Amino acid sequence: MSDEVGLQVEKSSAGADLLVELVRSVHLTPTQRNIVRTLIRHSDRAAYLSATEVAELSQVSQPSVTRFAVALGFEGYPQLRAAMREAGRAPGHGDSQPRNEWQRSIDFELAAMAQVRESLAKEDEMREVAAILASSRPLVVAGLRAGASVAQYFAYCASQFLDDVRLVPSFMGGDVDVLIQARSAGATAALMMVFPRYAEDALELIDKAKEVGLTVVCMTDSVASLAAGSADRLLISPVDSSLPFDSYAVPMIVANVLLSAMTEVDVAAAHRRLEAYEAAAEAAGMYRA
After folding, report:
1. HTH rpiR-type domain spans which residues (predicted)?
2. What is the arithmetic mean of pLDDT over 179-195?
3. Domain residue ranges of the chain, discontinuous segments joined by +
4. What's the CATH class of domain 121-283?
5. Under a CB-based contact definition with an 8 Å cutoff, are residues 158 and 263 in contact?
C-alpha cells in the first residue's frame, strides 16, 4: 500500500501503540493529529527520527512538533522519542501482528465498547437517566457541531414514542429561544451531546439550559470533559480521535441504549406511540419494504 495515504504496515508497533494510548487523554489540533499519523506511518523508525525530520515528514514547523510533545505531557520531543524507544524494548514487544492506523482506531472502538458494556451492568444508572428524560414534556435535545449527528439520530428516534421532542438547530449555534419556549411549555430536562473539541457555544448552551431551570443530561467523552462540571448527569461515551475526523461509533451505541431504556419507562405508552407511527408510515408509503 502507498505510504502517502497512510496505510503502510509498521514493522515495529510498540511506539505507535504508546502514541495511541497517549492521545486518548488529550485533545489535539489538526496539526498535532497530522504528526500522530506521520509517526504511526513511520513507526518502524519513528523512535529514531529527529524533530526536524518529523516536521519535514508531517509538513509542519519544528516548533509544532515540540508543542505536540508537550501536549502529550513531555518536556520536549527528545523525551517523547525516548519513551517510544523504551516501549520498543518492553517485554512481549513483537508478539502480535503489526497493525495500521485504521486497525488501531477500530481497536480503540472495540475497547471503548467493552468499557461501556461493563458500565451497563449497573442498570439503575441508565434507567434513572432514562426516566428523567422520558418524563420531560417536551424533551429538549441538543448537539452542536460535532455532536449534531448523534443528537439528530436520537431526536428522530425519540420522536417516534414521545409526544414532543425539540431539537435545537445545530446551525443556529445554541438557540436559547428553543430552551425558553420548551421550558414554558413544561420541559423539565434536556439531553446535550458535547464532544471534543468542545465547541464554546455547546458549553454555553448547557449553562443556558440550567439557567432556565432544565435538568441537563450530558453525553460526553469522559469525566474529564469540559462539559462534565456543568451537567447534572453524565453519560460517558468515548470518542476516537486518532484519525483526521473523530468517530462517534460509541456515542451512537450509547444513544441507542438510552432510547431503549426510555421506551421501558412507560412500556404501554411507548408501544402505542410506536404502533401509531408504524401505521402512519405504512399509510404514507414511507418505506418500500
Report:
1. 15-91
2. 96
3. 3-99, 121-283
4. alpha beta
5. no
Q: Does residue 216 sit in helix, strand or coil?
A: strand
Q: Please tell me the distance from the alpha carbon of residue 109 to that of residue 248, in angstroms, as a whole number.
A: 9
Share the mean pLDDT of the chain. 85
- 168: its cell numbers: 435545537
CA dist 174 and 177 (Å) reads 9
Please choose, from the candidates 67, 70, 12, 71, the residue with its C-alpha nearest in 3D space to the C-alpha of residue 39: 12
Confidence of residue 23 (pLDDT cuts 50, 70, 90): confident
Decide: helix, strand or coil at residue 192: strand
Residue 32 is predicted with a pLDDT of 86
Mean pLDDT value of segment 246-264? 95
Q: List the grid coordinates of 11.
A: 514493522
CATH class of 3-99: mainly alpha
- The CA distance from 57 to 35, in Å, is 8
Q: What percent of the chain has pLDDT over 90?
A: 49
> Cis (ω within 30 of 0) for the bond into 138?
yes
pTM over 0.85, yes/no? no
